Amino acid sequence: MTTLSTYKGISPTLGNKVYIADSCRLVGDIRIGADSSIWHMVAARGDVNHIVIGERTNVQDGTVLHVTRKSASNPEGFPLLIGDDVTIGHMCMLHGCQLGNRILVGMGAIIMDGAVVQDDVFIGAGTLVPPNKTLESGYLYVGNPMVQKRPLSDGERAFLKQSAINYVELKDEYLQEAGEE
């Protein structure tokens, strides 16, 4: 299986030391920053709009990344924009939303079109972020639909960055094992 595929002449582009698991499928206009990792069974389609993934960001197993096409009622559509030092847990669905920096998206969370997640946010496992919602920096969000639960503790804020660091170290081990380091 080809992990990276071209769509309408545009192929995914990877920064330095990016790890892409063999079982992923990335199609079209996808840009991935340095030291990021895309884990097993991730599907990402940058076909009707673009996907940008920042540096030191990890997208874990079974996650689906997609976008919304441009239209007369929404001339820009909704690209998928993910910042730096973001951890996206297993089996998440991110669709045409925008995530800032130092965010943890818990396993099975769904973030829908037009949603904006500011920096330093923790989204609990199974949380549903409805379309066009803004999640304010510095809080834990949980539920279906999501609610702002409480401010993050100092330890939780530190963990947001540490989680990203943990995955940079893990992807480096995978790259070394494959002889790509």
Report on this structure.
The chain has one domain: Hexapeptide repeat proteins (UDP N-Acetylglucosamine Acyltransferase, domain 1), CATH 2.160.10.10. The longest helix is centred in the last third of the chain and has 24 residues, at 154-177. The chain is mainly beta. The strands form two sheets. Strands 1, 2, 4, 6, 8, 9, 11, 12, 14, 15, 17 and 18 form a twelve-stranded parallel sheet that branches. An eight-stranded mixed sheet has the order 3-5-7-10-13-16-19-20. The protein has one helix at 154-177; strands spanning 4-5, 13-14, 19-20, 25-32, 37-38, 43-53, 58-59, 64-66, 80-82, 87-88, 93-95, 98-99, 103-105, 110-111, 116-117, 121-123, 128-129, 134-135, 139-143, 146-151. The model has no long low-confidence stretch (mean pLDDT 97). The radius of gyration is 16 Å and the shape is globular. 13% of the residues lie in helices and 37% in strands. It comes from Marisediminitalea aggregata. This is Carbonic anhydrase or acetyltransferase, isoleucine patch superfamily. InterPro entries: LbH_gamma_CA-like (IPR047324), Transf_Hexapept/Carb_Anhydrase (IPR050484), Trimer_LpxA-like_sf (IPR011004). Keywords: Transferase.
